[in-house]
Structure formats: C-alpha cells, structure tokens
Design goal:
By secondary structure, the chain is an alpha+beta fold. The protein contains 11 helices and 15 strands. The strands form 5 sheets. Strands 4-3-5-15-6 form a 5-stranded mixed sheet. Strands 7, 12, 13 and 14 form a 4-stranded antiparallel sheet that branches. This is HTH-type transcriptional regulator TtuA.
Length: about 300
C-alpha cells in the first residue's frame, strides 16, 4: 500500500474534514466529481469503505475516522515540507556554497560577502577557500570563483571583483644590494626566486610583457611554498625575489621593505569570475547573489 497516490489520500482528508464533496472541492479548487473519483479509487485499493455518503451528508466510517486521525498530521507535515521549498524557489533564503581560490578570499570576497548578507539576512553563505581547482558542482558547491583560463566549459560566468589585475615582482633592498637589480626577465634565471606551488602540485610560471613582447620563465630558488605569508616573509628577509598579485605586495612596497623589479614588464590580466551551471531552476540564494553582482557592477564598475 506504500504506492497509494498522495492526491487520493489528500482528497479523502479534505472530504472527511468538510463533511461535503462540494465544500471540499471549493477549498481545493477542483471539481466535486474529481474528488469523488479519488475517493472511489482509494476505497477500492484499500478494500474498505471510508465515508458514508447520502444526498444530505458525508460522515466517516469507523475505519475512516481512524485513518483521518493518523493521516491528517502526516499530510500536514508533507504540506509544510513542500511549503518550505518556497524559500529556495521564490525568496532569497537557504545556504549558498561557494568554492573560491584563496586569493579571492583574501583580496575582495569578504567585502562583497558582507554587503550581500546585509541585504539578504535569510541566506547563509558558506565559503571554502582552496587552490586545488576541483569540480565545484561534483563537490556539491553551488558556484565557484575562477580566473577565465580555469573556467570549465558549459558554464555561465559573471564578473566578480577587480576586472584588471597585475603581477608584480619585488625583492628586499638587502637582497638587491647583494645580488644586483635584474634588467630583463631573463636575468631572473640567475637569481634566487621564491616560488609558489598549489596543493595540486602545479607551480606558477612567471610571465612578463612589455610593448608586445612576452617572456615567461620557470623560476628556481631555495624556497617553494603554497603560503603567501611564508613567501612574503622570506622576500622581506632577503631570501630571494617574489612575484605575486600587486595587492599582496603593496604594503611591503609602500613601507620600503620591498623594492619593485622590472615594473615596466609587469603583466596584466583579466579579473576573476563567478561561474555556475546553466539550469532551469536556479536556487534562490544563487540567483540573488548573481543579481547582486550584476547590480553592483552597474552601479560602480570595478577597475
């Protein structure tokens, strides 16, 4: 009996409560004949009469009274569960799970997240920051943040954060005094460079550009890390040359702890994107976040 149609059980409950086919039909917005058909099917499947009906009245049988007493609370829970889905379909509510690179979590995502959550207090935002570049959908995330070269196919991409960024190369004054100032990117091959490697094992290639000329090297040096904090501390301590996002090096450059190298060769690249799968029924929390990003972009385009 586990395959009884829920609609037939709901029809029986409505008729038994209203004690009238017509009243139940009005409340359900259906015809009285359709409710009668549902009740007939249910009684045939169960092999027991549930309602006594005459031209004047409808009353539950003993079996019908017992079924109604047990069925009504269960159907109420089903209705509540289905009603709760409105939070995810119509209202911006629920949990939004994002997978983002650590650089996004450090440079711009906190400010964006705070402004978004103030507008939508019923949304819970879960951010996982890592540099493994996993399949975000397979891992159960609603969306991810990536730079364009890492955005998967068949995904929708929406700009988020700064639209242009720079990689800057720098070293401490003590290091440059001892080893000299590089004049061309190829000179870096003769220097000790502080390398960044992701947890996936992928190491960063240093890329440079000037006047249409490009140059790329795989740096070598005594230190390799996946932690920008370690890399920055090592550069300030004079261990070698560092190359990273300009925003990360700016405090050291401003304080004089670091000196820019090959600044006219600094490479620029396009900013990150929020990306997600194209789907007909987008979760309300994700839709709200996408609309929020688009609106912020219109109000104050990011450089």
């Amino acid at each position: 009996m586990s395959d009884l149609p829920l609609s037939d059980l709901d029809a029986f409950t409505a008729i038994a409560r209203e004690r009238s086919f017509r009243a139940a039909a009005r409340k359900r917005g259906v015809s009285a004949s359709s409710l009668s058909d549902s009740l007939r099917r249910l009684e045939e499947r169960l092999g027991v009469r549930l309602l006594n009906r005459t031209t004047r009245s409808v009353t539950p049988t003993t079996a019908g009274e017992r079924l109604l007493a047990q069925l009504a609370p269960a159907l109420g829970e089903v209705a509540a569960a289905l009603g709760a889905l409105d939070n995810f379909r119509d209202r911006p509510a629920g949990t939004l799970r994002l997978n983002v690179p650590t650089i996004a979590a450090r440079l711009f995502l906190p400010d964006i997240a705070c402004r978004f959550l103030k507008l939508y207090p019923e949304i819970e935002l879960e951010i996982v920051a890592e540099d493994t570049f996993i399949d975000v959908l397979a891992a159960g995330f609603d969306a991810g943040i990536r730079y364009d070269e890492r955005i998967e196919r068949d995904m929708i991409a929406v700009p988020i954060g700064p639209r242009r960024q720079r990689y800057v190369t720098a070293a401490s004054p003590a290091y440059l005094q001892e080893r000299g100032m590089p004049q061309h990117p190829r000179d870096l091959l003769e220097h000790s460079c502080i390398r960044h490697r992701f947890l996936s094992g992928i190491g960063l290639t240093w890329e440079f550009e000037r006047g249409g000329e490009t140059f790329a090297i795989s740096p070598s040096g005594a230190l390799t890390s996946n932690s920008i904090e370690i890399e920055l501390a090592a550069a300030v301590a004079g261990l070698g040359i560092i190359s990273s996002f300009q925003e990360l090096l700016e405090p050291g450059l401003a304080s004089g702890q670091l000196v820019a190298i090959l600044d006219d060769w600094a490479s620029e690249f396009s900013g990150p994107y929020l990306y997600y799968a194209s789907r007909r029924h987008m979760p309300a929390a994700l839709r709200a976040f996408v609309d929020f990003l688009k609106l912020e972009r219109q109000r104050a385009p990011l450089g």
